[in-house]
UniProtKB/TrEMBL annotation:
Protein name: ATP-binding protein
Keyword Nucleus: no
UniProt keywords, alphabetically: ATP-binding, Nucleotide-binding
Classification via SUPFAM superfamilies: ATPase domain of HSP90 chaperone/DNA topoisomerase II/histidine kinase
Residue ranges constituting the Histidine kinase/HSP90-like ATPase domain according to the UniProt record: 29-129
Length: 131
């Protein structure tokens, strides 16, 4: 578990993701995509929730071994998840590419959120065959 409280924690989460992805045998390009997706969801924590955590692990997703990233916070939540997944939509000053961009970089994403009670973003990338 990586606590995400300040912007420097984004770098820590990204580095932990890179290390796990390397151990799991991901290519350099896949490691870069994973690290970028982690940066996006961690930045959302610092920008919108203030504090939260990133959990990294290996689980079965859609019948395949996967590197799973969970970003959890107790922030204000996302009132309209489909809208938040549209390119260009942002409730802050960002470009609105964070969540949709992270989703494109990974093989799957689920978002659970309740306004006033935080958000859980789960995303995963399938571990390469033979790794």
């Amino acid at each position: 578990m990586i606590a995400v409280n300040v912007s420097n924690d984004i770098v820590t989460a990204r580095q932990a993701g890179l290390e796990l992805a390397a151990k799991l045998g991901f290519s350099l390009s896949d490691r870069t995509m994973i690290a970028t997706a982690i940066s996006e969801v961690a930045r959302n924590i610092t920008s919108y929730a203030g504090t939260g955590e990133i959990l990294l692990g290996v689980q079965d997703r859609d019948g395949r071994r996967s590197m799973v990233v969970q970003a959890k916070d107790n922030g204000p939540g996302i009132p309209d998840i489909p809208r938040a997944m549209e390119d260009g939509f942002s409730t802050g000053r960002g470009l609105g590419l964070g969540l949709p961009g992270a989703k494109r970089l990974m093989d799957g994403m689920l978002i659970t959120s309740q306004p006033g009670h935080g958000t859980l973003v789960e995303m995963w990338k399938w571990v390469p065959t033979g790794a």
